Each structure stands twice: as structure tokens, then as C-alpha cells.
């Protein structure tokens, strides 16, 4: 769960500082007046001093009231609103349904990597020796927004095995328990990478003898954790300081120079060696979302079975026990490629950010804790591999003779074993207008019931030195139902012809379907062909001017040319002849001069940059008597939108766009209800009330299912839980790409492949939408690592074919209504300022909804602001207080008001077509209880103040009367005395 950051606290203080200043001035003035009161008569002095006490007290109540109903209003609404915080609760029935879906996802998303001699399922074994600290302390989720909610019981790995009927060795468990629990401080701002493990010398002969007597079967578990934050997984563990990694022994270092977090430590290797020397039947479990180097599986034949079991959420380990026992037949497939040596990957030297030394002055300091700041430095990552991401490189390089595939790739993309066997037979391809159609008959040829997946790939024609193309491109996938032995199912496959096209960013600047033979194949994974047919294109088809792709609203053409930069991209030309040159470590230390003037942060950004002199001031505050509810279901082009927007004031629009953190604000002038949004991809988490839902397996597990149906069910149940919590906006799912294996947020992204991620993501979005919840597909775009303020350089072909593909599918097929923008720079501009939300997402793909920043903080993280966001298609700032750069600099500028108006329309369109208006907005803006209390206190204070003032004045009058009487009495005595003396 994304916690309230210290920068937000600073922001709140900044928002209320002038209220506090005014109050302080009132107190100071009261003290001064009270001190000067001795110059006046007693009645006046007492009146003044009474008011000097009362006025600050009344002022205190007034200032607190103004703070609560002003800058703090949104936070209080989110924290204390009765629907979100009190009455709203996920029902037991829905939680039970969620648990069932979560277990299904885990059951189909855990991947069987190895099963020599049919060791699994364990039909005769009921006792297991669990080795590895992670068997007691597995990873259940990620950190940051992908965390699971602690309100629900977590089913441990060991408990999942026990429920399936297995017994485990308690003595071994106690050995690991003594090392303590997993470090819960491994959070967004405090990344620790320690891997506690029992050293080999503590496995005494007695311990091992008892273990062998207990069972002849051993289960080894290793785990790796990633999360949201400011760094990815270390590529060289030996370089970490002592507070980030603690060796397990004083006698040796766990990692040698150059060894990464995704390799086994020496202590882990020693444990594996020891177990394999003592047991012939060993099962290995990898509990992590990032592909690990698992070469030891090949080196130890005793490890007969291996399973990839990424973080399972609250209940997913139940399914692990069911898989080991055979009650579930595994059907998961890998979403990434597993390598023997990641240092040979084309991304290895260009995974981490490199600082720009000539932009040091533009570094931004973010307060992340009391007295602690985090410095964001302008830096960059070159996406040097171009389109050759993941399997697309390894398959293509192998076909070109550039690599030895079998010594490079351990487990291909799309790989997964089963307890049964299948055959697949492909029919002839039929040309059906804009698409190709064929059927695949899948038959269970084994002895156990199970599910299989049809993976369809294209191998397009390639000209040496021409348009870059990979030899393997996933273009369709479908999973069968549960098939009994000898049972068959025929899967119908339809492929749009446009899906075979490649993007030519240098020549035609459009998608091109080049002439030649396209091999369409079905495979068991990205490498092994089952069957194939050819489809021939007679002449080039350019989806350019006047001929857009059938799925596009306008022609797709270059919009981010400058983002290619001066990078030497990997090319297939001459068998990847430029590999060494393209993939070498970046040598550039400075941003080239031609780009320097384009690079800016908030500190040096001209807030009038996007002002247009020709703009006329739009109408505001009109009395057209329209309500937002009347436009539910209306086209985005309906002329009534303009009339509705005319009714809004500038303040209405400013509040709606600037304070969109975990909510959209109420707008009384058009009858818009307030709505609530929530994190996150693995659970619905309300950061303010701390309430949430059951935690699901991480996104990698969902994608490992290769099941559109389960993705749809996942979206539906997340939507249902959100609605029961009073929530209609969901900050998920994340559509970014596993460009590297070390990405800290890979756990909440689906895959290295855009098509697979798009199928899973689009169905999740559609499922949530069917329940009235708009899903914010995130993080648009190229935010494929923890890359806050990091400039990403990529050519447009790679961007469109790889990184934008899941977003495109989620908009076109999932009908997404919302998106969240990344924290990264793309080229020299923050991603939200690039304009591609308008040019690509809206104009080309037909997106009609709203775009939101990622967490905005007090200062837009130093580079986001309303004046670079709104003109470029970003409609709302994820902030909860209305001051600072989330508000336009000049609200009187016609251009600013136009941008506010357009952004407001996008937000309103999204909200009115959500579950918030299922009842026509009947719950429109009832005053929250806390605000009624504030008003009550204000009224009571006013009454008491008036009563006190009446009392003060009466006392003053009485004192003055008494004083006058005394003075008069003295005057009479003087006169009498004077008379007598005369």
C-alpha cells in the first residue's frame, strides 16, 4: 500500500501556513493590545483584556474551521466519509468469492518448470522436509502500491501444504524461525536486500539424519522480493553497503563481484548442495516474480521437480499444496524468458540509470521522512535493444546464428509443463477480409485431466538491413477448458491482418505490412513449433495517409521522433553485427547540448509555455440547468457537454483537476457527486481508512495463467469488492513491460511481451468496468523500472510494438476509461508533457476518459505541474490539497481555462459512465458528518462569543457606571467643601 509520504505532510503544512500566520498575527496583536490596555481606564482596560483573550479563542476556532473545510477538506472526506470509512464493507460472501478466484489464479498461474521421472504429483509421499529460510518466510506480495492488506489472514506456504494433507518437519522449521521474520521495513524508501539463510555448518549430522528419517523427499524454497520505490534489483550485490545487505557468515561473502540479486547466494548454494547430497528426491520452489538464474537445477539431477510460485497473496499457497498432491494439474506458462546468465542479455549494460553530469543543478530533493530527503538526479536509460525485448531477441538471434540457444535460454517464454500431455493440430488459414482465421484442435493425449494453451506466433518476411522484425511474435493466445483424457476442444483463432504489420518509424512513419510469406505457427513455447502455415502478402500495404489500420480512429504516425535520441539501436542486420557496439555500457555523461534547452523541472519551467494568444475566454457560471446525470451514456461529442461545462466556475474546474488524489471532487453547479479511488493491483486498499480487500496473487501469477477468462474474473471481483467499499476508481492494472529481469516493479507488471500483457490487462479492465469501476491503466508510458525523473530514450517502433501495446489493447478491447501517467521522463520531457496521451491514446486509439498523474506530492515531485500537464492531455493531479503546482499558475488566462475545461470534461465523462451514477447520482453530495460537526462547533462558538461579548459589554457598562458615580461623588464633595470655605 502506498503510504502517506513525508512530502505530503510538508504539502499539508504548506497549504495551511497562511492560515497559521494569520492566527499568529491575531494572537500577537491581542497580546500587544492587552499590554497597552494599562494606558486606559479600568473599565476599558478590563473590556480590552477580556476581548484579548476571547478574540484569539474565536479566531482559533475560525482558523481551524477554515483549514478543515478548505485545504484539509479532501483528506477529511477521504478519511472520514461514512461510505468509505464506516458503513462500506466487503461482504463475507464476496470475500469468499474472491478467495475462490484467487486460488484459481494461483492454481493456474504457478508454473511447473521441471518434472523428471514424474516425481510430481506426490501420490505416495505425505511427509516433506522444507529447506530454506523462505519456506518459513515466503514473499506474499510486493511493496508500495502492490502490497496486500494486513486485515486478512495470510495462508503460509507451510499451511498450504498442511491443508493438502502433507506433514512438515518441525525441527527444520524451528531452525529457520530462529533467523527471524522477513524485514517489513523493505519499503518504498528503504530498500534492503538481505537474504537470511542458515549456514551449512548448522545442518548438523543429527539434523540431517532426523530429516532423512522423517521423509525421503526435500523441498527447497528460495525467494526474491521487489517493489515500488527508487531503485531496482542490484546487479552487483558485492557493492551494497552493510545496511543494505548482511552476509550470513563472517567467514565468507555471500556474493562475489558481479553477482546479482537474482543469483543464488553462497549460503543458498551451500544449502542446495547439502540437500542434494542427502536426498535423491528434491523439489525446488522459486518464490519470486523476477526470473532468477536457476542453472543449479541443471547441475543437480537430484532436483527432479521445480515450480515457479511468485507471490500468491493471502490464500494462493493453498493451490501449491493442491498442485503437489495432484488435485490441481498445473497449466501455467512463463511470462518471461529464464536465462542461464543475465549478463549476456542485451539489456544488461543499460538497465540502470546513468546520471547527466551537466544537469546536476536540476536535481530535486524530496522529503521522504522527518529530516530525511531523497535526491532525484536527472539521468537516463537507453532502450538499446529496440524491438528485441525478451524472447524476441533470443529467438531471432538463434535463427541468425548469433547465439547458442540451448546454453543461453533455460526456460523459454510461454513454457510450462503439465501432469498430462496434449496434441495440437492446426487447420488451413482462411482469408476473411481484414482478418485471418483458422482452427486449432487440442486433444488430451495423457492420463490426467488438464488445460492446455494455444500460442500463436508470426514470423514475418525480413530483408537484411530493412525494417526490424523478430522471427517470433506472439499474436494470439487461447486457453482450453479442463479436458479429460482423450477429450478434444477446437479453438477458433482470428487474427487481424494489421497485427502482422511492423511500425516503420524511419521510412513511411506508419505501420507497414510488407509483401512476402508470413509463417503463422502454433508453439508449445516461443521456441518449439508444433505446426505452422504460411500466409502470403502480394504487395506492401502501408497504413498511412488515407488508409489507417481498421482498429485506429486516425492514421498512426510518428509523434515522438525526438525520443529516439542519438542511441545506436540493436539491429538484426548482418546477423546482429552491431550487438557489441549497441549493447555496451553507456559512455555518455552529459545530455547533448541540442537537448539541454528542452529539459526542465518545475524550478525553471515557464508556466506560460502553452498559452495561446488566439484563445478566447470560455463561458463560465452559466445557468443552463443541466445536471451531469443527464449525460450518462451520451457521446463525447454530444453538444450538451458544452452547455454543462459552461455552468462550471473556474474554481469548480480547478478543484476538480487539482485535487484528484484518491477521489474526484463534488461539483454542486452541475450536480456531480464526489467519488473515491483506491490502490492497488493485488488488493483494493484505501490508504486513508486502512480498509481493504483480500490480497490476490501478483500480476505475474495472473499473466502466468495465460487465461483471458481468469483475467476477466479477476477484474470482475476486484470491481465488486471496490463497489462494496464505496469505490469506483481503481489504480490498476499496471501495463508496463518486463524490459529487464531486475525491474523492482515487475511483480505488478504482466510480462516481457505486449500481446500477452494486453490480453490479460484488457480483460481485467473489462471485468472491472462491468461492475461500474474505471481502471486506471498505468503507468503511461515506458515506466518499466523504478525510473522517477529518469529520461527514457527509445525509438518509436519499439515504443509502439512493445511498450504501448498493452495500453492500446486495453483501450481498444478493454474500453479503458482512465489512465495513470508515469513518473519518468521520455526524452527531455516528463512523460505527461510528451503529448502522446492526446496524439496517440485519444486521437489514434479513441480513448475518451481521464488521465491522472502518479502521486503528486507537495511539489509535483519537482517536475509535474498543472501547466505542463493539462495542455498535453493529463487531466488530473493525484493530490489532496489545492495549492502549489497542481493548480494552474494563471486562472484568468483564457488558455488555462480552456485546458481546465477540456480536462474537466474527460473526468466528468469517466465518472458519469461509472457505477457512481448507477442510481442517477441520487446520493448527490450529502454533507459529511465531520463537516456537520464543524458547522455545529462554529455555530456554538458564535453563540458563545456573542454571549461572552454581551457579558463583557454589560460588565464594562457597570464598571463605567460605577466609575462615573465615584467621580460624580467626588465632584459633589469638592463643591460642598468649596462653598463652606467661601
Describe the structure using short key phrases:
alpha/beta, disordered C terminus, globular, single chain, 33% helix, 33 strands, 6-stranded mixed sheet
What is the number of beta strands? Answer: 33
- First CA to last CA: what distance? 97 Å
Count of separate DSSP helical elements: 27
The major beta sheet can be summarized as: 7 strands, mixed
User: In percent, how much strand structure appears in the residues?
Assistant: 15-25%
Shape: globular
pLDDT averaged over residues: 92
Task: Kindly report the spatial arrangement of strands forming the biggest sheet.
Answer: 24-25-26-27-29-32-33
Radius of gyration using CA atoms only = 33 Å
Counting copies of identical and different chains, the oligomeric state is: single chain
Helix fraction bin: 25-40%
Classify the secondary structure makeup into a structural class.
alpha/beta
Low-pLDDT runs of 5+ residues are 974-982
Describe the secondary-structure layout.
Blueprint: H1 6-36, H2 42-69, H3 73-80, H4 82-87, H5 92-109, E1 111-115, E2 127-131, H6 157-163, E3 167-168, H7 170-177, H8 205-214, E4 217-223, H9 266-278, E5 281-287, H10 296-299, E6 303-308, H11 317-325, E7 338-339, E8 354-355, E9 364-369, E10 372-376, E11 379-382, H12 391-399, H13 405-408, E12 409-411, E13 422-426, E14 430-432, E15 435-444, E16 453-459, E17 473-479, E18 488-496, E19 502-504, E20 510-513, E21 516-523, E22 529-537, E23 541-543, H14 573-576, H15 579-583, H16 593-596, H17 640-646, H18 650-658, E24 663-664, E25 675-678, H19 699-704, H20 708-724, E26 729-730, H21 754-769, E27 774-780, E28 790-793, H22 796-803, H23 805-812, E29 818-821, E30 825-826, E31 829-830, H24 836-844, E32 850-855, H25 866-869, E33 876-878, H26 894-912, H27 929-981
Amino acid at each position: 500500500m502506498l503510504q502517506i509520504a513525508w512530502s505530503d505532510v510538508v504539502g499539508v503544512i504548506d497549504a495551511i501556513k497562511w492560515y497559521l500566520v494569520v492566527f499568529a498575527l491575531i494572537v500577537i496583536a491581542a497580546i500587544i493590545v492587552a499590554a497597552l490596555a494599562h494606558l486606559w481606564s479600568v473599565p476599558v482596560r478590563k473590556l480590552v483584556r477580556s476581548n484579548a483573550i476571547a478574540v484569539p479563542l474565536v479566531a482559533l476556532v475560525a482558523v481551524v474551521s477554515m483549514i478543515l473545510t478548505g485545504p484539509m477538506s479532501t483528506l477529511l472526506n477521504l478519511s472520514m466519509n461514512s461510505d468509505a470509512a464506516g458503513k462500506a464493507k466487503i461482504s463475507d460472501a464476496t470475500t469468499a468469492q474472491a478467495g475462490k478466484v484467487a486460488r484459481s489464479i494461483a492454481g493456474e498461474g504457478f508454473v511447473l518448470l521441471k518434472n523428471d521421472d514424474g516425481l510430481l504429483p506426490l501420490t505416495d509421499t505425505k511427509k516433506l522436509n522444507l529447506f530454506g529460510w523462505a519456506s518459513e518466510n515466503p514473499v506474499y506480495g510486493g511493496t508500495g502500491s502492490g502490497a496486500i492488506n494486513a486485515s486478512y489472514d495470510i495462508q503460509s506456504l507451510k499451511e498450504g501444504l498442511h491443508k493438502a494433507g502433507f506433514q512438515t518437519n518441525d525441527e527444520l522449521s524451528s531452525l529457520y524461525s530462529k533467523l527471524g521474520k522477513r524485514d517489513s521495513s523493505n519499503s518504498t524508501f528503504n530498500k534492503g536486500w538481505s537474504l537470511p539463510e542458515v549456514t551449512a555448518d548448522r545442518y548438523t549430522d543429527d539434523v540431517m539424519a532426523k530429516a532423512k528419517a522423517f521423509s525421503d523427499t526435500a523441498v527447497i524454497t528460495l525467494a526474491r522480493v521487489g517493489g515500488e520505490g527508487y531503485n531496482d534489483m542490484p546487479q552487483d550485490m558485492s557493492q551494497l553497503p552493510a545496511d543494505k545487505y548482511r552476509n550470513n557468515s563472517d567467514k565468507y561473502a555471500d556474493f562475489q563481484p558481479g553477482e546479482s540479486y537474482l543469483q543464488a547466494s553462497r549460503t543458498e548454494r551451500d544449502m542446495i548442495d547439502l540437500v542434494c547430497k542427502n536426498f535423491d528426491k528434491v523439489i525446488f520452489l522459486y518464490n519470486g516474480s523476477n526470473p532468477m538464474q536457476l542453472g543449479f537445477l541443471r547441475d543437480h539431477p537430484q532436483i527432479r521437480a521445480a515450480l515457479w510460485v511468485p507471490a500468491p497473496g493471502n490464500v494462493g499457497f493453498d493451490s501449491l499444496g493442491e498442485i503437489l498432491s495432484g488435485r490441481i494439474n498445473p497449466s501455467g506458462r512463463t511470462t518471461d524468458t529464464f536465462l542461464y546468465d543475465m549478463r549476456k542479455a542485451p539489456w544488461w549494460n543499460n538497465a540502470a540509470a546513468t546520471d547527466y553530469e551537466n544537469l546536476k543543478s536540476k536535481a530535486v530533493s524530496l522529503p521522504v521522512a522527518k529530516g530525511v530527503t531523497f535526491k532525484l538526479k536527472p539521468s537516463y536509460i537507453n532502450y538499446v535493444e529496440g524491438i528485441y525485448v525478451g524472447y524476441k531477441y533470443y529467438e531471432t538471434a538463434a535463427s541468425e546464428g548469433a547465439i547458442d540457444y540451448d546454453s543461453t535460454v533455460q526456460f523459454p517464454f510461454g513454457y510450462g509443463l503439465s501432469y498430462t500431455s496434449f496434441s495440437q493440430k492446426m487447420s488451413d488459414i482462411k482469408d476473411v477480409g481484414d482478418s485471418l482465421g483458422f482452427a486449432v484442435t487440442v486433444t488430451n493425449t495423457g492420463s490426467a485431466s488438464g488445460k492446455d494453451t494455444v500460442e500463436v506466433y508470426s514470423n514475418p518476411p525480413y530483408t537484411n538491413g530493412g525494417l526490424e522484425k523478430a522471427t517470433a511474435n506472439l499474436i494470439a493466445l487461447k486457453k482450453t477448458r479442463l479436458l479429460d483424457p482423450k477429450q478434444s476442444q477446437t479453438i477458433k483463432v482470428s487474427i487481424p491482418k494489421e497485427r502482422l504489420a511492423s511500425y516503420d518509424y524511419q521510412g513511411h512513419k506508419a505501420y507497414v505490412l510488407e509483401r512476402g510469406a508470413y509463417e503463422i505457427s502454433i508453439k508449445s513455447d516461443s521456441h518449439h513449433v508444433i505446426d505452422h502455415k504460411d500466409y502470403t502478402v502480394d504487395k506492401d500495404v502501408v497504413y498511412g495517409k488515407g488508409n489507417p489500420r481498421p482498429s485506429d480512429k486516425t492514421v498512426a504516425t510518428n509523434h515522438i521522433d525526438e525520443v529516439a535520441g542519438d542511441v545506436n539501436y540493436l539491429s538484426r542486420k548482418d546477423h546482429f553485427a552491431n550487438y557489441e557496439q549497441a549493447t555496451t555500457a553507456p559512455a555518455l555523461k552529459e545530455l547533448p547540448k541540442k537537448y539541454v534547452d528542452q529539459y526542465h523541472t518545475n524550478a525553471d519551467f515557464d508556466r506560460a509555455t502553452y498559452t495561446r494568444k488566439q484563445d478566447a475566454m470560455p463561458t463560465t457560471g452559466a445557468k443552463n440547468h443541466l445536471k451531469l446525470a443527464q449525460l450518462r451514456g451520451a457521446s463525447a461529442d454530444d453538444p450538451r457537454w458544452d452547455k454543462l461545462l459552461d455552468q462550471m466556475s473556474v474554481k469548480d474546474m480547478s478543484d476538480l483537476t487539482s485535487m484528484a488524489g484518491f477521489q474526484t471532487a463534488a461539483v454542486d453547479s452541475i450536480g456531480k457527486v464526489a467519488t473515491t479511488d483506491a490502490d492497488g493491483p493485488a488488493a483494493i486498499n484505501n490508504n486513508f481508512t486502512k480498509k481493504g480487500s483480500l490480497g490476490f496473487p501478483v500480476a505475474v501469477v495472473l499473466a502466468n495463467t495465460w487465461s483471458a477468462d481468469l483475467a476477466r474474473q479477476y477484474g470482475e471481483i476486484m470491481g465488486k469488492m471496490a463497489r462494496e467499499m464505496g469505490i469506483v476508481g481503481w489504480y490498476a492494472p499496471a501495463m508496463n513491460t518486463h524490459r529487464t529481469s531486475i525491474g523492482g516493479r515487475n511483480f505488478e507488471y504482466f510480462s516481457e511481451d505486449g500481446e500477452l500483457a494486453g490480453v490479460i490487462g484488457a480483460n481485467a479492465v473489462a471485468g472491472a468496468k462491468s461492475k461500474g469501476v474505471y481502471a486506471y491503466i498505468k503507468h503511461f508510458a515506458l515506466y518499466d523500472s523504478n525510473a522517477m525523473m529518469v529520461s527514457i530514450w527509445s525509438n518509436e517502433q519499439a515504443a509502439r510494438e512493445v511498450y504501448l501495446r498493452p495500453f492500446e489493447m486495453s483501450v481498444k478491447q478493454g474500453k479503458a476509461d482512465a489512465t495513470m501517467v508515469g513518473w519518468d521522463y521520455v526524452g527531455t520531457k516528463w512523460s505527461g508533457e510528451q503529448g502522446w496521451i492526446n496524439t496517440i491514446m485519444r486521437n489514434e486509439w479513441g480513448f475518451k476518459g481521464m488521465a491522472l498523474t502518479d502521486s503528486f506530492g507537495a511539489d509535483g515531485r519537482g517536475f509535474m505541474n498543472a501547466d505542463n500537464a493539462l495542455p498535453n492531455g493529463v487531466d488530473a493531479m493525484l493530490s489532496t490539497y489545492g495549492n502549489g503546482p497542481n493548480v494552474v499558475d494563471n486562472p484568468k488566462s483564457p488558455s488555462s481555462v480552456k485546458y481546465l475545461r477540456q480536462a474537466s470534461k474527460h473526468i466528468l465523462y469517466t465518472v458519469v459512465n461509472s457505477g457512481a451514477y448507477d442510481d442517477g447520482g441520487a446520493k448527490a453530495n450529502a454533507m459529511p458528518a465531520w463537516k456537520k460537526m464543524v458547522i455545529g462547533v462554529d455555530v456554538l462558538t458564535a453563540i458563545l462569543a456573542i454571549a461572552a461579548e454581551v457579558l463583557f459589554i454589560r460588565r464594562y457598562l457597570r464598571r463605567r457606571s460605577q466609575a462615573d458615580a465615584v467621580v460624580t461623588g467626588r465632584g459633589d464633595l469638592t463643591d460642598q467643601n468649596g462653598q463652606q470655605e467661601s
